Amino acid sequence: MLLYLRLLKESLSFALNALRNNKLRTLLSLLGVTIGIFSIIAVLAAVDSMDKKIKEDLSDMDLNTIYLIRFSFGPSDIPRWKRQQFPDVTYEEYDYLRRSVKGVDKMSFNLFTRNENVKYEDKTVNSIRVKPSTNEFIDIEPIKIESGRYFNESESNSGAPVITIGSEVATGLFGNMDPIGKKIRLYGQKLTVIGVLKKQGETTFGDSNDVAVFLPVNFLRRMYGDNNKTLTPAILIKPEKGIDIDEFKAELTQKLRTFRSIKPGEINNFFINVLSGFTDFIDNIIGQMNAVGWGISFFSLLVGGFGIANIMFVSVKERTNLIGIQKALGAKNKFILFQFLFEAIILSVIGGLVGMFLVWLCAVGLSAAVDFEFILSAKNMLLGTGLAIFIGLVSGIVPAISASKLDPVEAIRTGM
Fold it and tell me: Do 164 and 228 belong to one domain?
């Protein structure tokens, strides 16, 4: 054990001497390892941060939540031209499914529409996300009320001119005033503010409720009807807990096919998108991003490995005489082998640590510059260190073996 500690100490000394005596050559050779470790750890850290943020944004939602809509959230085997001919879901279908499908906990009819401007007296907040829905939506999407309330079933059915607004909308329109009971203007109509949401912050998909307003879907249907091209309807369904999701989807499919009079053998002209399937799709994309990151970084790591090997071959040549003397004094081949191998690993780890330090600096800088937390996890740091050790081991093995096999007499004579 003491022998290996001595070897490690001497190897560290030789590695530091190489850095001091041949600064430019050593730094240029280590640059490949630094760039390689930086590339792979930066990609992994960015992807892990994105994955964590997505999971946090979806953590409050039931992953069995279903979006019944004419579009697919993921890849589809149905040709695009055929999908474009699918009809929108309707309020009548929502009403029929709510009454006929078993195992439904909550079901909501929603309209996806373009952003609008909202006004209060002389103040305007631009590009606000409008979320028309039925009253059950608050039990499906994790909407948290700061003050006031969400609209009830009676207001939802009648399309009452009431509205619940996000925290940034409330601040932009009312400042420090209490918004409850105030009338704001949207779509050229006056709506009474009945609730304000808790601040949510930025989300991965840029759909924060802080810049959104919620109003009864029938208020908009009464204004525009059901055939307006700026409105995309969807039925959101939250099944009861513990239900077999595949059986539930089968019943839902059968009921809607019956309502639409789809003949046997004809394809469904709608999509049942389960939120868990969307998260699987995201996981697949993240896996592909990781693979691309590894592929790009492989070449940098390869260059770094050649750089370390170059340093070690030069080091062996410069210390040939010393190797001969060590062998003449009784040093075994194993001692020489480990001496150069440890030196290669130490040099590689130095390059890897510089690369990870640069990743950390970038993570701190970007987290401060944008509203997104970049995380350099302990797992990725250990991975980076392990990669650096592996590169040093692979790059240094051939020079170390060549050094250990030198004939002591020839080695001493070479240095004379």
Answer: yes
